[in-house]
Amino acid sequence: MLVRPTFIVEDITAFSLDLLREKGIQGFIFDLDNTLMAPHTGIIEAYMQEWLILITQEGFKTICVTNNKRSHYYNAAEKVINMPVIGHARKPAREPLLKAVDLLELTPEQVLVVGDRPLTDILGGERIGAYTMLCDPLTKLTEPPTIQFLRKLERLFVKS
Ligand SMILES: [Mg+2]
């Protein structure tokens, strides 16, 4: 099984919004941990917060789907990232992602699923027929060697 992300980026905030528009993308489904904020922190960096405001002003719709099971955490995150959060999602399951598409009032072909994990975020996005963007994890440089090794293994499933 290989996943083939539509886009592979280091930094989601550096990506061309015009290129997304050309593909007909009108909404984002974001992963939470390591995509929008460092895991378990509940803190979003200023540059990310500003970019989220920018894409909203540019007319893109946003929602977050996380596999995180701790409701007090992801409910609190909702206020920090200023968009609805669907928690305990079990990506790559289709249902939570399709629910997010419905809440955005878009179709899967109009949505970009963004995340740092090939076998949850990207596979899930592919399974619903959405565009996908694999990003580098925000904590890439500070992760312990074992986690970095597991990430390298998971990247073997990515066909670029
Ligand atoms: Mg993640």
SSE layout and pairings?
Blueprint: E1 7-9, H1 17-22, E2 27-30, H2 46-57, E3 61-65, H3 71-81, E4 85-86, H4 94-104, E5 111-115, H5 118-127, E6 131-135, H6 145-155
Parallel strand pairs: 1-6, 2-3, 2-5, 3-4, 5-6
The structure holds magnesium ion (MG).
Give the helices and strands as they follow along the chain.
EHEHEHEHEHEH
Q: Would you state the CATH class? A: Alpha Beta
**Mean pLDDT level:** 95
Structural class, from secondary structure content? alpha/beta
State the total count of DSSP E strands.
6
β content, as a range?
15-25%
- The amount of helix comes to 25-40%
- How big is the Rg? 14 Å
Spatial gap, N to C terminus: 13 Å
Number of helices: 6
Give the overall shape, derived from the CA principal axes. Answer: globular
Weakly predicted, low-confidence segments: none
CATH superfamily label = HAD superfamily/HAD-like
> In CATH terms, what is the architecture?
3-Layer(aba) Sandwich
Q: Trace the largest sheet across and list its strands.
A: 1-6-5-2-3-4
